[in-house]
Amino acid sequence: MVTITLLPRVTRPYCSDVCSARWPVEAADATVEACGRTRLGPDSDGVMTSMARVVVIGDLMTDAVAHATLPLARGSDTPASVTMHGGGSGANIAAWMAADGGDVAFVGRRGADIAGRNRDMELMGYGVDARLVMDPERPTGTCVVMVTHKGERTMLSDPGANAALSPDDLPHDLFVPGAHLHVSGYTLLSEGSRAAGLAAIDYARRTNMTASVDGASAAPLERAGAEPFLELSNGAVLLFVNAAQAKVLTGRDDAEQAARVLTAWYPHVAVKLGAEGSLFYANGRPPVRVPAPPVDRVIDGTGAGDAFIAGFLPAWLDKKPPGEALAGGCRLAAHALNLIGARPVL
Q: How far apart are the C-alpha atoms of 88 and 240, rounded to whole Å?
């Protein structure tokens, strides 16, 4: 088991401590210094560098992970270890990024239940600025993750409170120039939370923030359709997909060809290729590939794609070479493969 050591966080006031609650467009120039566009953090050489703050809008779940110890006996019993973990793609991204030293806020919705309280406390434990709205009626979302003895996973999801995330739940003080927004694809694909995702992308555009989205999962993406998703995510400058999601959106089996097609909608595309590493494509530039680091044994693939996004974004936002950003993503994804559950160990 690999444990991620939390880096010391630099204390500074968050925007909510110093900024007006009103929409910050009019006072953006006056508040950006107080709110802090960036925070200082150590790079790989220990040198202090500025890192753009990342705001993640997305899903928060409790994952019930059933890890089979033998091949699944369909229609009968299979021995397994069953554990409970924090989950949700958006919350996972925030947790991995904070654990790796990034400055990140997460906006989501939870139930008024013990699971929701535990998820909230976990995020704060990682160092995430958690902005969770408590839903008085819906429970915290739950996902049953079935993992085979080979590490392959199937998920059964009940979104719960996630489906009620609304534009009113978005804290306006988080939308400031120089920050970056990431919207979980699940938020855009869900009819209940879609308006919140669209509003967040619009707020980011109005405040001169960059924005990225991810392709969630191939099955819900296919149910929604390629064209609707491309339209919903309009305004994002960076797309994260795996090979299966890229195929859904483009019809291309070859990941590099799919990435090239996707640059017609997104200036930058990062494709997660599993054991083959990752690929980055930008308009007018040759594709960049980075191999995956060796992993002795895959314990659980849950959250590896989320970890990749968390490892990629800081370097990309710091305008590092694409290969360095891809390597950062692959590094955290490899850690995730060695853990049960979708988050680093606290």
A: 16
pLDDT in the model for residue 51 = 67
Q: Which helix (H) or strand (E) holds 337?
A: helix 322-337
Q: Are 59 and 186 in contact (CB under 8 A)?
A: yes
Torsion of CA 101, 107, 111, 114, to 10 degrees: 20
- What domains are defined for the chain? 16-60+89-140+159-337 (3.40.1190.20)
pLDDT digits (tens, 9 = 90+) for 252-275: 999 999 999 999 999 999 999 999
C-alpha dihedral over 55, 315, 241, 165, to 10 degrees? 0
Which of 249, 195, 265, 170 is CA-nearest to residue 217? Answer: 249
Compute the distance between CA of residue 159 and CA of residue 152 in angstroms, rounded to an integer. 22
Cα separation, 109 vs 322, in Å, equals 33
- What are the structure tokens assigned to 255, written together? 């990941």
Residue in the block written with tokens 């397994």: 80
